[in-house]
Amino acid sequence: NNIDFIDKYDGIFCQQDYCTLGIIKGLNEKNIKIPDKISILGHDDFEEIINMFSPRLSTIKQPFEELCLNAISYLMGEIKNENVSVKRSLKAAIIERESWEEGELC
Questions:
Q1: How many angstroms separate the CA atoms of 35 and 33, rounded?
Q2: What is the pLDDT of residues 68-77, one digit of tens each?
Q3: Sign of torsion, CA 81 82 87 91?
Q4: Distance between CA 40 and CA 60 in Å, rounded?
Q5: What is the largest CA-CA distance in the chain?
Q6: How far is CA 58 from CA 15, 65, 72, 103, in A?
Q7: Complete DSSP assignment for 2-49
Q8: Per-residue confidence (pLDDT) for residue 6, from 0 to 100
Q9: How far apart, in whole angstroms, are the C-alpha atoms of residue 10 and residue 12?
Q10: DSSP structure string for 49-97
Q11: Rounded distance, CA 59 to CA 41, Å?
């Protein structure tokens, strides 16, 4: 219930969009303006729910399909006793919407 900490920070990052949307809801109920007072960034880019909230959530989007295909490839190699590389570098993207102060993200 105590939200005095908000004055100490420019933004909040949450590892999952679902959690972030709960923070947005709570801040909206306290009439704290997002992103004027504090910016919010999520992680997952669940478009189905992001657009149901105001402001719409800025988020980090990972290539989940590519992550899954790499995991399956690795597991199949392990099953076949093949020497499979586990080091992969995949590019994530920052999706800027309304919950982050414009121009603040990389």
A1: 6
A2: 998 898 898 8
A3: negative
A4: 11
A5: 57
A6: 12, 21, 30, 12
A7: --GGGGG-SEEE-SSHHHHHHHHHHHHHTT--TTTT-EEEEES--HHH
A8: 82
A9: 7
A10: HHTTSSSPPEEEE--HHHHHHHHHHHHHHHHTT-----------EEE--
A11: 5
What Cα–Cα distance (Å) separates residue 85 from each residue in 33, 65, 105? 47, 18, 33
Q: How many residues does the chain have?
A: 106
- In this structure, the number of other CB atoms found within 10 A of the CB of residue 14 comes to 19
- Global model pTM greater than 0.90: no
The pLDDT value recorded for residue 34 is: 92
d(CA 34, CA 14): 15
pLDDT tens digits, 77-102? 889 988 776 777 889 999 989 998 87
* Per-residue buried b or exposed e for 22-50, using 16+ beta carbons within 10 Å of the residue's own CB: ebbeebeeeeeebbeebbbbbbbbbeeeb
